[in-house]
Amino acid sequence: MYRCCLVLLLMTITLGLFGGALNAQSPAGTLRVAIQGEPLGLNLILTPSAETYQILMYNVVEPLLRYTEDGQLVPLLAAGYEVEETETGAQYTFRLRSGVKFHTGETLTAEAVRYTFDRLLDPAVASPNAAPFAFLREVVVLDELTVRFVTDGKASPLLGYLASGKGTGIIPVGSGMEALRTHPIGTGPFEFDEWVPGDHISLDRNPNYWRQGLPRLDKVIIKFIPDQAVSLAALLAGDVDLVDKMVAESAKQLEGDPRFKVVAGLMNVPQLLAMNNARAPFDNVLVRRAVSYAVDRAEIIAGTVGRVQWGSPIGSHMGPLNPYYVDLVPMYPHDPARARQLLTQAGYPDGFETKIYLPQPFEFHIHTGEIVADQLREVGIRCQLEVLEWGQWIERVYKQWDYDMTVIGDDQGIEPAVNFTKPFEQVDKAGRSTYYFQYTNPFLRRLLVQGRDTFDVEKRKVIYAMVQTIIASDAVAVWIQDIPQFEAMRAQVMGYRQLPIYVLDLAPIHLENQP
Amino acid sequence: MVILPTLIRSARRSRKGVNLMLGITLVGIVLITAGISWVYTPYDPIEMSIPERLQGPSGAHLLGTDQYGRDVLSRIMQGAQNSLLVGIVAVGIGMTVGIFIGGWSAFSTGWSDEVLMRAMDILYAFPAVLNAILFVTLLGPGVINAMIAIGIHNIPIFARLARGNILAVREEEYVMAAYALGRGRWSTASRHVLPNILPALIVQGTIQFAVAILAEAGLSYLGLGTQLPYASWGRMLREAQIFMGTAPCLALFPGLAIALTVLGLNLLGDGLRDQLDPRLANTG
Amino acid sequence: MMSEDNEGVLVLAYFGRRFIGFLVTLFVVSLLVFLVIRVIPGDPAQIMLGTEATPESLAALRERLGLNAPLYVQYFIWIDGLLSGALGESLRYGVPIGKLVATRFAVTGPLALLAIAIALGLGIPLGIYAAIHRNRFGDYGIMVFSQLGLAVPSFWAGILLILLFAVRLRWFSAGGFVPWSESVPGAMKSILLPSLALGVIHAAVVTRLTRSTMLEVMNQEYIRTARGKGLVERMVLYKHALRNALIPIVTVVGLQFASLLGGTIIIENVFYLPGLGRLAYQAISHRDLPVVQDVVLLITVMVVVMNLLVDLSYVLLDPRIRLE
Lengths: 515, 284, 324
Prior knowledge:
The complex is a heterotrimer. By secondary structure, chain A is an alpha+beta fold. Chain A has helices at residues 2-19, 50-56, 110-121, 158-164, 177-182, 228-236, 248-252, 285-294, 297-304, 336-345, 363-377, 390-399, 416-424, 442-452, 457-473, and strands at residues 30-35, 65-67, 73-75, 78-85, 89-96, 136-143, 146-152, 190-196, 200-205, 219-224, 242-246, 260-275, 352-360, 381-389, 405-409, 477-490, 493-494, 510-511. The model of chain A is unreliable at 1-27 (pLDDT under 50). In chain B, 72% of the residues lie in helices and 0% in strands. Chain B has ten helices and no strands. The model of chain B has no long low-confidence stretch (mean pLDDT 82). Chain C is mainly α. Helices cover 78% and strands 0% of the residues of chain C. In chain C, helix 6 crosses helix 8, helix 10 (233-270) packs antiparallel against helix 12 (289-317) and helix 11 (276-285) packs antiparallel against helix 12. The two termini of chain C are 16 Å apart. The relative contact order of chain C is 0.14. Chains in contact: A-B, A-C, B-C. Chains A and C meet through helix 1, helix 6 and helix 12 of A and helix 2, helix 3, helix 5 and helix 8 of C.
């Protein structure tokens, strides 16, 4: 009995002791970041993981070129480049910066560039990230610091791929693919320190970094905090300095608090209601247009994001961060009467029954799907909602195209050729689309080839505007919104800037009052 | 249902009867709520009204609205249907299969008894939640699969109970007599044994009903037991956790509904045991 | 009366039989777990590579992960590894599972222990108090508490604790875990609320049980005799009644271990604790097959061992139990 009382007493004391908020202060020059997901291995050649990319790209490994925050392509490891058209395609010649060192102390050479792309395209490595480089015929070393990429076709997206593709960060000659999975090496402003799965990754300042004055932090600790409520609490308690990709619900709670700042931005991930274009009734363009009129984007944004000015409705397979984006939202204003009229015209005066698959654990899409079902019900389309685990979603929707409708975020790069090739160009031997949209259009495919063969940016803009107009008028899917994201940080965190690609650019970040 | 008035009458006489009365009342309220929600809820529990989202309790919405502007009271009422259904099916599966296995085991000897009981032990060794998660992953999320998963976990409980009770009853004189008269195994079992072990099964059934409701709530909380957009108390709590900072009320009412239902069932089970099984009455 | 030797042999034989049963159970469970997770739809390689997979990269990854071998070979490799102490490698993280499980257990172990401590520390005194003051006001109060405890789902208790201590009072964070290596008080702080949520619920069971066994024991002959001898009430209680009542309590706490471990799966998800339960849950949804089979087997082993220990201690504590 006394022992039991003792336990109770101890508990009370513990409660009291740890009850007060422990306000940990970060050591000078250390930034603690909370991210939601966790990397799947640290070798960008081997993994398609967005988290690995987000942490390592530009920070630990560096490609030849990079994107700036306003979407410009600028040289990074390359000091400059030239493009020449040849009879069979084109050749891109890069002059590398001299004196750049890997974290291991080796010097960056043209040979390392060739080694990197040999690994990326090696059939034995079977990189999941190799597909965009299918047109790359060979990488030739011209001298110590000059390297040439020879392509089949003009391959105008190559420069964009080089700056944003996974696995394009240059690695030292002879690096083992397995070794890089747990210890990445590059030329970046930060060196890999350690990875504790399920907990954090830490990076240290690269003392020999080639860009003067960078990085400005001594250490970065990236914690994996899967839940928004927890990362919000961690920020409020001072346990982390920056929360990456916070949801609107949490961001709202920081508004007006001078200790924090919130940067609203977009993920460049178009969220869409996909319809199986090969399956009745969605093989009928009238039905797809009816669905497009029935969906009310403003209401979805109010119900998922909660604040209209934070939402970003879209009307085609692209986000507004992309310089090639055209706004096609006005093509289908919310108009239930028009939707019902189109359904009648298509032979469904009483609507029809259908099923929407929703991917677990993506709550944002599940919530959107619930609202969409409610909106479609108003025009007579009765949707059964079925939640599928992510693995089953990939299997059923993405691989077997065995679905009616689904809500998903279709991850995008910034290069339009990348965005459109898979969904609208690739077909199997029978001429059937291999993408889950199940939409084919021979004219569109010719247009896309033309886009790839065009170098002039203004001409490309015209081509991709046409592409977007065609898919929107065929109502291939209902594009809903570019998913908003919020970067929340303590007021002392300076120099944060959002890139149009899924990368957390750490080099320019510093803490105010940092010595 | 003739039994109910008798129970109530005898419950009034004993102090223990308070449990029973309270249990009957709470379970009755849930049953009636579920029944009413078939024909009437204050609002459509599924229809959204986004402009009215995340409102606190008010005259128009007694328990407030959720993130889609749906009336929380209406959804809790609809959730009662879901919980009761899960309880009935899960206990039904557990009881039917369990009694069969337990009975078989009790009336057979040697290895088949041993093997069956070992199998039940192994099934029982899996933590219920883990068992259910694995099973639901196998079959896919959904309320029916959740019910089956919970039902399967109930099987060993009823099998053991049935076997133990049958073994005890089997030795009684009248059963031996029935055997001696040449009655078959199953005929003896259904005529003489089943009525005698029924009270224990009913009591256990009530308790397992409560356990099933808790388990379904847990699964739905993990996102494995839902049929959107229909309401489930566990799923409502999951959603509420997202909005805890801005709409804390959302996290209160569905939990309260679960707790009161389970409380009612537990009290009912305790009370029934006191009334039906006097041997155990002292220990409650 | 049996001779000492005879009884010793019987006990040993009983232990031996139980141990063989234990091994058989382990074998069957391992086989079941292995088969079930391979029947579950969803290809681990596909989930890892996600939507960007190509048939070639999928095939290569499946080969690298050893998913192309026949089932019985995979099973044999797994069991062989287990017996030689190698738990294999996580498909998802590419790190040894032993290390993964160890770091996760550093969360779940203390969490479960603290929860049991709370359950006993709260349940036993309350149960004793209720038994002594049977049918009086305090007893009713305690019985109401235990009925409520049985009725409240642990995850709701967790949510309520978060609402109160994290959202309102801001004393605790709403979840997450500070590693032991970083800060011991911080780690304690992060498991305190979840173990309270679990512990209080289980305290309800312990309270009820303590009360009823105490009542039973207090009614027994020898206690009445002890009272008759004029022993002070307090002495009677602690020396005789409680000690005898403890046996069934220990048993039930042991048996509750399974439900407690199950409870950690949900409560770790409520508080986002990187524990074993959450690892199991995530590994299942990511089809990290080696991790699922190891963790599920580990959890089952813990439960089975606990049950075995309970049975054995029963025999040792209470010689009256017949060794069938």
